[in-house]
Amino acid sequence: MANAVQQPEVGFDSGFQTEDARRQAASERAAHEREKQALNLQRENILSQRTSNPARRTALEAALAQIEGQISAMG
Predict the structure, then answer these.
(1) How far apart are CA 47 and CA 66, in angstroms?
(2) 48 lies in a domain?
(3) DSSP string of 4-50?
(4) Based on the structure, what is the number of domains in the chain?
(5) What CA–CA distance (Å, rounded) separates 41 from 62?
(6) Which of 21, 32, 51, 54 could form a disulfide with 17 if both were Cys (CB 3.0 to 4.6 A apart)?
C-alpha cells in the first residue's frame, strides 16, 4: 500500500527529476568543478615557474599545452 506522503518517481521525459537524480547530478557537477579547479591550479603552477634550462622549458610548455587541452575539453 502506497504512503500518501510518498511522491511518485517521475521519468526524465516529463521534465521532473527524482531527488536521487538531482543529488547525483549535483555531485557530478561538483566533481567536474573540482577537477577543473585542480587543472587550473596546475596551469597556474606551471606558468609561475621560471627556468633558463631549454629542456625544462620545453617540458613545461608541453605540460601546459596538455593541461590547457584538458581544460578546453571540459568546457
Answers:
(1) 13
(2) yes
(3) TTPPPP--GGGT---HHHHHHHHHHHHHHHHHHHHHHHHHHHHHH--
(4) 1
(5) 16
(6) 21
Q: Is residue 63 situated within a structural domain?
A: yes
Q: Is residue 60 part of a domain?
A: yes
pLDDT in tens, 32-70: 999 999 999 999 999 999 989 999 999 999 999 999 999
Query: Is 69 within a domain?
Result: yes
Report which residue type is found at 11. Answer: G
Residue 75: its H or E element? none
In this predicted structure, the answer to whether residue 14 has a pLDDT above a threshold of 60 is no
C-beta separation of 18 from 10 below 8 A: yes
Helices and strands (H, E) in the chain, number of each type: 2, 0
Contacts of 36 (CB under 8 A, 6+ apart): 71, 74
Is pTM, for the whole model, over 0.90?
A: no
Residue 44 domain boundaries? 37-75
